[in-house]
C-alpha cells in the first residue's frame, strides 16, 4: 500500500471536483481492494440539485407546522384548555391562535432547534471534508400518527465519504451538536415544570408516561439540586421537546445501517462493524417479542427500528 495513501487520494478527489466545476462531466473516484491490489474506479456523480426545486424548504415548513400542531395538543392538555371539550378538537386546535402559538413556542421551536442543530453538525463537517452534501430534509408527520409531529431529519451526501476520519467526523458531529442544544432545553423544561407546578390529575389514565435514560435521568437529578420538586407535576411541553431530542439522538446512535451510530462504527471498526450491525438488528427483533428483562416489556416499535 503506497505511503500517504489517504492524502494522495484526497488530492485526486479534489482534482476531479475542480474539473467538474470547469464544465467536465461530474465524476468521482473510488478505491476498491481486490486481494492485495488497489483498483481505482471512476463513477458518474448524481447531478440533482435539491436547492433548485426547494424540497428542503417545503419539508421544513411542513415540519414546523406538524410539530407546532403536535405541540399545541401537548399545550392544550398541559393547561387543560377548553378546546379539549369540543368535537374534533385535534383539528379545531389549529385555528385556536393562542394555543397554536404556544404549541410553537414551547414545543416546535425547541425541538426544531435540536434537530436542526443535529443536522447542521453533519452538514458542517461534510462541507469541511469537501463533500457534496444537501441541506437538511425534515420529515413531517401528522401528530395523530406520531405524537411528536416529525420523524426527524437527514442530509443527503451525494458521493462516497473518502476515508474513516471524514466518516467519523460526519457521523459523530450531528449527535454531539444536537446534545449541546438538547441539554439546556431539557433543563429549561424541568425548571418550567417546577415553576408552573401543574398537578397530575387524579384521573390520569390517558397520560403519556415518558421513559427515561441514564442521561435524561441525570439531568432530572441535576435539576432537583437547584429546584427541588414538591410534588408530582405534569411535564412542561419543553421537557417533551428535550426528551424527543434525546430519543432521536439515541435512536441514531444505534450502530447499525445508515444511522449515525453505523457510520461511527464503520469508521472505528472497518468491515468488522457489519457483524455488530447484524447483532443490533437481531437484538431489536428479540426485544420486539421479549422486551428488555428488568427494564421494559415487549414493544412492536423495536421491529420498526430494526427495519430502519
UniProtKB/TrEMBL annotation:
GO CC annotation, single: chloroplast
Molecular function (Gene Ontology), one example: peptidase activity
Membrane topology: Multi-pass membrane protein
Pfam family, one: Peptidase_M50
Localization in the cell: Membrane; Plastid, Chloroplast
Start and end residues of each Peptidase M50 domain: 107-270
Stored InterPro entries: EGY1-like (IPR044838), Peptidase_M50 (IPR008915)
CDD domains documented for this protein: S2P-M50_like_2 (cd06160)
Any one biological process term the GO annotation gives: proteolysis
Keyword Transport appears in the UniProt entry: no
Protein name: Peptidase M50 domain-containing protein
Organism (species): marine metagenome
Organism classification: unclassified sequences, metagenomes, ecological metagenomes
Amino acid at each position: 500500500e503506497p505511503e500517504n495513501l489517504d492524502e494522495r487520494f484526497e488530492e485526486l478527489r479534489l482534482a476531479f471536483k475542480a474539473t467538474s466545476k470547469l464544465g467536465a462531466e461530474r465524476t468521482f473516484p473510488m478505491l476498491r481492494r481486490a486481494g492485495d491490489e488497489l483498483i481505482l474506479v471512476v463513477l458518474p456523480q448524481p447531478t440533482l440539485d435539491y436547492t433548485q426545486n426547494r424540497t428542503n424548504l417545503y419539508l421544513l415548513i411542513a415540519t414546523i407546522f406538524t410539530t407546532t400542531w403536535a405541540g399545541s395538543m401537548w399545550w392544550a392538555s398541559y393547561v387543560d384548555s377548553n378546546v379539549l371539550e369540543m368535537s374534533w378538537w385535534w383539528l379545531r386546535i389549529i385555528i385556536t391562535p393562542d394555543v397554536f402559538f404556544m404549541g410553537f413556542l414551547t414545543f416546535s421551536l425547541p425541538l426544531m432547534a435540536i434537530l436542526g442543530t443535529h443536522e447542521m453538525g453533519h452538514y458542517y463537517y461534510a462541507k469541511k471534508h469537501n463533500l457534496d452534501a444537501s441541506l437538511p430534509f425534515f420529515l413531517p408527520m401528522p401528530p395523530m400518527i406520531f405524537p411528536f409531529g416529525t420523524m426527524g431529519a437527514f442530509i443527503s451526501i451525494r458521493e462516497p465519504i473518502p476515508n474513516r476520519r471524514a466518516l467519523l467526523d460526519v457521523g459523530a458531529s450531528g449527535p454531539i451538536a444536537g446534545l449541546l442544544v438538547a441539554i439546556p432545553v431539557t433543563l429549561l423544561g424541568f425548571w418550567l415544570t417546577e415553576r408552573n407546578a401543574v398537578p397530575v390529575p387524579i384521573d390520569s389514565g390517558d397520560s403519556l408516561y415518558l421513559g427515561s435514560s441514564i442521561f435524561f435521568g441525570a439531568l432530572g437529578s441535576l435539576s432537583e439540586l437547584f429546584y427541588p420538586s414538591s410534588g408530582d407535576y405534569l411535564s412542561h411541553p419543553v421537557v417533551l421537546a428535550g426528551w424527543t431530542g434525546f430519543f432521536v439522538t439515541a435512536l441514531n446512535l444505534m450502530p447499525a445501517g445508515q444511522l449515525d451510530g453505523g457510520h461511527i462504527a464503520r469508521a472505528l471498526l472497518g468491515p468488522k462493524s457489519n457483524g455488530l450491525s447484524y447483532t443490533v438488528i437481531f437484538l431489536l427483533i428479540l426485544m420486539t417479542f421479549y422486551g428488555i428483562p428488568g427494564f421494559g416489556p415487549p414493544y412492536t416499535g423495536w421491529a420498526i427500528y430494526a427495519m430502519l
